[in-house]
Amino acid sequence: MKNLILTLALLSLLLVINCKDNSVSEAECTPVVQSMFDNFSKAAPEGDMEKAKVMLLPMLQKECQSGKYTLDCLKNSKTIAELQLCKK
């Protein structure tokens, strides 16, 4: 649960730092975000991700649509550290 809270805090920070107009469509990001969420879910204790899904999916979608990340890299990210390496 501690890792989940840290993950949400880091994603919130990324969201605030990267606010700008969307340059990647929602349609392009939806499968990328689902893949990221699935990857993060595998690493989290069972049940934690279901509780966070409501908050996490919109933040991941917004980050994806920011245009500051390589989509293939995001799609394959399994941790926050890997997510941060995906910046263009």
Question: Can you put this structure into words, describing what you see?
Answer:
This protein is an all-alpha fold. The chain is built from 5 helices and no strands. It has helices spanning 2-17, 26-43, 48-65, 71-76, 80-84. Helix 1 runs parallel beside helix 3 (48-65). The longest helix has 18 residues, at 26-43. The chain starts with a helix and ends with a helix. The mean pLDDT is 79.
Q: What's the alpha carbon Rg, rounded to whole Å?
A: 12 Å
* Helix-strand makeup class: mainly alpha
Termini, distance in Å?
Answer: 30 Å
Helix tally equals: 5
Helicity level: over 70%
* Backbone shape: globular
Segments where pLDDT lies below 50 for 5+ residues?
A: none
Number of strands: 0
Beta-strand content: under 5%
Order of helices and strands: HHHHH
Q: Overall pLDDT, averaged?
A: 79
How can the largest sheet be summarized?
A: none
List keywords for this structure.
88 residues, mainly alpha, globular
Question: Any chance you could write out the topology, listing elements then pairs?
Answer:
Layout: H1 2-17, H2 26-43, H3 48-65, H4 71-76, H5 80-84
Helix pairs in contact: 1-3, 2-3
Concise structural overview:
With 88 residues, the chain is an all-alpha fold. It has five helices and no strands.
